[in-house]
């Protein structure tokens, strides 16, 4: 007599196995990265919960004060609380980086899907020459040129960074599509009548998303750094904006008198980028296990 296992029981048996595999992959560095990202998201969504002062209010009798009980991370050359400015600048950095990643992901993935699935055609040739041209131009130089054309602001800087990352997403998606289309199951799907958009949406895209997702998380950290670099060079928002790159630019003239003006936003940028890089590696490890 054959024993049967109820569907509900088999699910409860399988689920702990997946959670155990996830816990094994969750190293101390990954856990620290998740904690940092949680704090970043909290600061971006509810900065007033974490900040202690008005980030724009000037206290001209309290300029360049070192970190203390009243001002946790010191004050700048106008007496503004650096800690509160960094907290309120988090939302600007996160939103602008998200916009940049969405632009690169959507446009680049679409180009990669088309050029990979219709490889060998005239459309592929034209699009790949466009991608080659984007790759040939240094990303920072391309971003600066786009910002000059659009105007100086954090939003335009995010658009510029997103456009400069299109080639990276397109290349990766195209390579994934070409790899997937060489697999036997896709040939079987074609024999069953899957064509065009149905083939892409139902069979190619679901199997190519993992690598692109890992790249998206990695590009998120890179976008924060690129947007901060543009702001530092004067291609983003202008003072009194609390954007991290603007704060570094404001503090460069006070490196010796008040090093915390440069150190605090710089550390915020570095820690954020490292945390998202670690998250990207974690996502890649999980997709490899699957």
Question: Which characteristics define this entry?
Answer:
290 residues, mainly alpha, 12 helices, 0% strand
Description:
It is elongated and about 75 Å long. 74% of the residues lie in helices and 0% in strands. With 290 residues, it is mostly helical. The protein starts with 6 loop residues before the first helix and ends with a helix. The chain contains twelve helices and no strands.
Terminal Cα separation, in Å? Answer: 34 Å
Structural class: mainly alpha
Mean pLDDT: 84
Using only C-alpha atoms, the radius of gyration works out to 24 Å
Q: What spatial form do the alpha-carbon principal axes imply?
A: elongated
β-strand amount: under 5%
The percentage helix is: over 70%
Number of helices: 12
Largest sheet: none
Number of strands: 0
Poorly predicted residue ranges: 1-15
The ordered string of helix (H) and strand (E) elements is HHHHHHHHHHHH
